[in-house]
C-alpha cells in the first residue's frame, strides 16, 4: 500500500515538473499561436486582438494556473488551430498510435524471443553466426531508412500496400490494421534485433553459472535446463528493455509516422509544435509522460513476480 | 511458472505471424484509388486546413480548397477576369463608391435553402466585423453599409471610393442561419462539405443543385488528403494514394510514373531577395542596386527549377496581365563591374557581411539563397544563410521586421493591384521591408483614387517602376508550378491566384 502511494505521489510530481518545464519552453521559442494563425496577413493590431482572445496576453503564471486548474478537472482545453476540444482531437489520434505500438510490440516479441533462444542454444553454429551478422546489420539501419525500404519493397515492387494510403479505422478496420503492419515492421525490426542479442547474451551468461551446472549434473537435458531453469533468470534484464520499447512505441514513433503518413500522436505533436498549438502539445506530452511512468510501474511489478527477492528488498 | 515464458513467446509468435499474413491481403484495399474508378479523386495537399470558415481561413492552402465550397457574388475565370456568380450582373457608380448587384435567381445553399439578399448583406457585414472576420477585415472595413434594395438587388456602399473593390466580392456568400461555419460549412459552391479529420483529410461531394450547369462538378467525391511529408509524394502518386498533387517540387518530377499528366504553370508569387530598407547597409539605394547587378535570376532559375520560371523585375507577377511589366526584369542585367563601382561609391569597397534568413519549410527559397551567396561572393559580399522555422520567420522577420534580408515569395490575396502594391506604402502595417518613398506613396494614392481605368493602370505601373528604380528588393522570379494528375482524369486548370478548382476536372474518357 505504501508502495502504491509513493508511486502515485512521484507520478504527480513528475507530471507537474514536466508541465512547468514545457510551459517555460514555450516562452523560449519565438513565435506564438497568433503569429502562426494570422500568417502574412498579420498586423500589430490584429495580433494584439487575437492574443487577447486566446488569453496569451496574460502573465505566464496565470496562463499556467488556469491550464492546471482545467487539467486537474480533466479538461484538456481547446485547440487553437482546430477550434475543437483537445480531448476530442486526441481521441481520434491516440488509437492510431496505440494500434501501431501494439502491432509493433507483438511483431518484435515474435521475432526476437525465438531468435534469441535459438541462437543461444546453438551458439557458435553457422545459423547462429548468420543470424548474429544479420542482427548487427538490422540494428544499424535507422527506422526512417528501413521505412523507405519497406515502402519501396512492399509498396512499389510487391504491391502489397500503397505507400501513404493510410486508412482510418473508422472507414475500414482491417484496411487500417493491414496498413499499419508495414510501418510496424520498420519499428519492430531494429528493436527485435536488440532484444534477440540481449536475450542470447543473457542466456549464455546464465548458462555459465553454478546452478546450471548443478541442473546438468542432476541429469537434465539441454532443453530441460534451458527452459526449466535458465530462461526465467535470463529473461529479467530483457524485461526492462521490452518495457522501455513498449513505452517508446506508445509515445509514438515520429520518424515512422512521418515516412508512412500516419496521423498518430507523433504527427499531431510535430504539427502542433509548428503551429504553437500549446494545449495540444501539453496534452500529448502529458500522455507520453503518463505512458512511460505506467509502463515502468508494470515492469517493476513484473520483476517482483518473477524474482520475489526484489520485493523483499523493496 | 516453468514454461510460461516460452509458451508466451511461442504464442505471440504464432499470433503475430497469423495476423500479419492474414492482414497483408487486406492491405491491398484501403483508400487507394487504383483501377478505373473515376467517381472519387484524391487530392494531396501539404498543409492542413486552418478553418472551414472563409472569414477566418488564413492560409492560401486553405483558401484554394474553400474555393470549391463557397461561391461569391463574382468568381474569377482562368484568365483572372471576374465573372458573374451569385450576382448575375452588377454596376459600379462612376466614382467607385456604390457597387450595385443583381442577384441571380435560383441559387441554392448546400442545405437546400435559397440564397437571399439578407444572406448577402449578412455575409459582407460578417467579413467586416473584427470579431468574426479574419484577414478580410482590413479590406472590408472600407464598406460603410449594405442596402437591400429589394429581394434581388443589393447595394454595397463604400466609405471612400475605390474602383478596385470588385475583386473582394469573390469571397463566399454564406447563409445567415448557420452559426458555426467552421464546424458546419455551408456555401453555394460546386462541392459541398462532407467531413473533416485534422491532419488526415477533408472530404467533399458534388453539389447536385449547383446554380451553374457549366461550372458544375464532374467527379462525385473529392478527398483532400493531408500529406505533410513531401519527400514521399512521388511514391504516393505512383502507388495510387494520390490522384492529383498541385505543388510538386521540381526534384520529384522524374519520380512520377507515366500514369500521370504533368501540367506546368506558375505559382503566382513574386520571389525576391527582400531587403530591410531601414538597416545598414541596405538603407543606401546604391548598395541595393549593387546586389541586384551581381545577382543573375537566370542562374537561380537554372539551379532551382531546371530553367523554368518567369523573371520578374518588380512586385507584380505575370498572371496580372494588365499590370505586369516584363521589361522591368532587365533593369539590372548582371554587371559585376557596375556592382563593384556602386559598392565603392557607397563606401563598401571591400564588401560587407550580412545574413539572409530563410524559412526552412521552403526548399526552393533555400536553394535560391545558395545561388545568391555564390553570386555575391564575386563582388566581395558575404551572405550567411540562416534557416529558421516558418513560425519564427513569421514572428521575427515578417511581423517583427527584425532581419537584414530574406528570400520568400509574396502572393496576392485578391485579384487586384493593391494586393501586390499597397504593402510598400511607407505606413502600411505589412510593409515588412520598411520601404519608404514619398514618390511611391503619392503615386499609389493617386492610382488608388483614380476612377479612369487606363489612368489607374498607368499609375499602378508607375508604382512598379519606382520599386524597380529604387531597387526596394532584388526581384527574382515567379516560380514554376508543377501539377501531377492521374491520366484517369483530365481538365486541370491554373488560376492566377490561389484556387484549385476541382470542378473543372473530369474523367479522361
Question: Based on DSSP secondary structure assignment, what is the total number of beta strands of chain A?
Answer: 0
Total E-strand runs of chain B: 21
Strand arrangement across the biggest beta sheet of chain B: 8-9-10-1-11-19-12
If interface size is counted as residues with C-beta under 8 Å from the partner's C-beta, which chains form the largest one?
A-B, 74 and 67 residues
What fold name stands as the CATH topology of the largest domain in chain A?
Answer: MetI-like fold
Q: Describe the global form of chain A.
A: globular
What order do the SSEs of chain A take from the amino end to the carboxyl end, as H and E? HHHHHHHHHHHHHH
Mean pLDDT across residues of chain B: 88
Please identify the top-level CATH class of the largest domain in chain B.
Answer: Alpha Beta
What does the model show?
- Chain A contains 14 helices and no strands.
- With 314 residues, chain A is an all-alpha fold.
- Chain A has 2 domains: 76 residues, no CATH class; 170 residues, MetI-like fold, CATH 1.10.3720.
- Chain B is an alpha+beta fold.
- Chain B is 28% helix and 22% strand.
- Chain B has 13 helices and 21 strands.
- In chain B, the strands form 5 sheets. In chain B, strands 8-9-10-1-11-19-12 form a 7-stranded mixed sheet, with helices on one face.
- Chain B is globular and about 70 Å long.
- The interface between A and B is large, with 74 and 67 residues.
Amino acid at each position: 500500500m505504501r508502495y502504491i502511494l509513493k508511486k502515485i505521489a512521484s507520478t504527480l510530481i513528475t507530471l507537474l515538473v514536466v508541465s512547468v518545464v514545457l510551459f517555460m519552453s514555450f516562452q523560449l521559442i519565438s513565435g506564438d499561436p497568433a503569429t502562426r494563425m494570422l500568417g502574412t496577413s498579420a498586423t500589430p493590431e490584429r495580433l494584439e486582438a487575437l492574443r487577447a482572445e486566446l488569453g496569451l496576453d496574460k502573465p505566464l503564471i496565470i496562463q499556467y494556473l488556469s491550464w492546471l486548474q482545467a487539467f486537474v478537472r480533466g479538461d484538456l482545453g481547446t485547440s487553437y488551430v482546430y477550434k475543437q476540444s483537445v480531448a476530442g482531437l486526441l481521441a481520434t489520434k491516440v488509437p492510431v498510435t496505440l494500434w501501431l505500438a501494439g502491432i509493433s510490440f507483438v511483431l518484435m516479441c515474435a521475432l526476437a524471443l525465438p531468435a534469441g533462444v535459438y541462437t543461444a542454444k546453438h551458439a557458435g553454429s553457422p545459423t547462429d553466426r548468420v543470424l548474429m551478422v544479420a542482427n548487427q546489420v538490422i540494428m544499424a539501419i535507422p527506422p526512417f531508412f528501413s521505412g523507405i525500404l519497406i515502402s519501396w519493397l512492399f509498396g512499389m515492387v510487391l504491391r502489397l500496400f500503397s505507400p501513404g494510403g493510410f486508412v482510418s479505422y473508422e472507414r475500414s478496420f482491417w484496411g487500417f490494421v493491414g496498413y499499419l503492419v508495414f510501418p510496424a515492421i520498420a519499428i519492430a525490426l531494429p528493436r527485435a534485433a536488440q532484444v534477440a542479442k540481449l536475450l542470447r547474451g543473457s542466456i549464455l551468461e546464465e548458462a555459465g553459472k553454478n546452478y546450471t551446472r548443478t541442473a546438468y549434473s542432476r541429469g537434465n537435458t539441454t532443453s530441460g535446463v534451458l527452459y526449466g531453469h535458465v530462461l526465467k533468470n535470463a529473461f529479467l534484464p530483457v524485461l526492462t528493455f521490452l518495457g522501455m520499447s513498449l513505452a517508446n512505441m506508445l509515445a509514438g514513433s515520429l520518424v515512422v509516422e512521418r515516412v508512412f503518413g500516419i496521423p498518430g500522436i507523433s504527427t499531431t505533436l510535430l504539427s502542433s509544435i509548428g503551429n504553437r498549438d500549446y494545449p495540444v502539445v501539453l496534452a500529448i506530452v502529458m500522455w507520453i509522460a503518463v505512458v512511460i511512468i505506467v509502463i515502468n510501474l508494470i515492469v517493476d511489478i513484473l520483476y517482483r513476480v518473477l524474482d520475489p527477492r526484489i520485493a523483499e528488498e523493496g | 511458472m516453468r514454461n510460461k515464458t516460452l509458451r508466451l513467446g511461442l504464442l505471440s509468435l504464432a499470433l503475430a505471424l497469423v495476423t500479419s499474413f492474414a492482414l497483408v491481403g487486406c492491405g491491398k484495399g484501403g483508400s487507394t484509388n487504383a483501377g478505373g474508378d473515376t467517381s472519387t479523386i484524391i487530392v494531396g495537399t501539404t498543409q492542413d486546413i486552418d478553418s472551414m470558415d472563409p472569414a477566418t481561413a488564413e492560409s492560401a492552402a486553405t483558401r484554394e480548397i474553400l474555393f470549391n465550397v463557397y461561391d461569391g457574388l463574382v468568381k474569377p475565370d482562368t484568365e483572372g477576369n471576374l465573372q458573374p456568380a451569385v450576382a448575375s450582373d452588377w454596376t459600379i457608380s462612376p466614382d467607385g463608391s456604390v457597387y450595385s448587384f443583381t442577384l441571380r435567381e435560383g441559387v441554392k445553399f448546400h442545405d437546400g435553402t435559397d440564397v437571399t439578399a439578407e444572406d448577402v448583406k449578412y455575409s459582407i457585414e460578417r467579413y467586416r466585423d473584427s470579431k468574426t472576420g479574419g484577414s478580410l477585415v482590413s479590406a472590408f472595413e472600407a464598406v460603410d453599409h449594405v442596402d437591400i434594395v429589394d429581394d434581388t438587388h443589393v447595394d454595397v456602399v463604400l466609405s471612400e471610393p475605390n474602383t478596385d473593390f470588385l475583386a473582394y466580392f469573390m469571397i463566399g456568400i454564406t447563409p445567415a442561419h448557420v452559426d458555426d461555419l467552421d464546424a458546419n460549412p455551408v456555401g453555394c459552391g460546386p462541392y459541398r462539405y462532407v467531413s473533416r479529420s485534422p491532419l488526415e483529410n477533408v472530404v467533399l461531394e458534388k453539389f447536385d443543385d449547383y446554380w451553374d450547369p457549366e461550372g458544375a462538378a464532374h467527379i462525385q467525391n473529392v478527398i483532400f488528403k493531408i500529406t505533410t511529408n513531401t519527400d514521399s509524394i512521388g511514391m504516393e502518386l505512383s502507388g495510387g494514394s494520390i490522384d492529383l498533387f498541385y505543388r510538386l517540387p521540381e526534384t520529384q518530377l522524374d519520380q512520377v510514373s507515366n500514369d500521370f499528366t504533368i501540367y506546368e504553370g506558375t505559382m503566382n508569387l513574386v520571389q525576391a531577395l527582400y531587403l530591410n530598407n531601414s538597416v545598414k547597409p541596405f538603407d543606401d539605394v546604391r548598395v541595393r542596386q549593387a546586389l541586384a547587378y551581381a545577382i543573375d535570376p537566370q542562374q537561380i532559375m537554372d539551379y532551382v527549377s531546371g530553367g523554368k520560371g518567369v523573371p520578374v523585375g518588380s512586385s507584380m507577377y505575370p498572371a496580372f496581365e494588365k499590370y505586369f511589366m516584363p521589361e522591368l526584369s532587365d533593369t539590372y542585367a548582371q554587371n559585376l563591374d557596375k556592382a563593384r563601382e556602386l559598392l565603392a561609391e557607397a563606401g563598401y569597397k571591400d564588401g560587407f557581411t550580412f545574413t539572409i534568413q530563410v524559412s526552412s519549410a521552403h526548399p526552393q527559397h533555400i536553394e535560391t539563397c545558395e545561388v545568391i551567396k555564390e553570386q555575391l561572393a564575386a563582388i566581395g559580399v558575404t551572405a550567411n544563410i540562416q534557416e529558421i522555422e516558418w513560425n519564427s520567420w513569421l514572428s521575427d522577420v515578417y511581423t517583427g521586421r527584425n532581419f537584414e534580408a530574406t528570400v520568400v515569395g509574396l502572393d496576392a490575396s485578391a485579384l487586384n493591384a493593391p494586393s501586390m502594391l499597397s504593402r510598400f506604402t511607407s505606413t502600411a502595417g505589412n510593409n515588412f521591408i520598411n520601404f519608404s518613398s514619398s514618390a511611391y506613396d503619392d503615386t499609389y494614392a493617386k492610382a488608388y483614387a483614380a476612377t479612369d481605368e487606363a489612368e489607374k493602370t498607368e499609375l499602378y505601373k508607375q508604382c512598379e517602376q519606382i520599386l524597380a528604380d529604387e531597387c526596394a528588393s532584388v526581384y527574382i522570379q515567379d516560380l514554376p508550378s508543377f501539377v501531377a494528375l492521374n491520366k484517369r482524369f483530365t481538365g486541370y486548370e491554373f488560376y492566377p491566384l490561389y484556387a484549385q478548382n476541382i470542378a473543372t476536372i473530369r474523367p479522361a474518357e
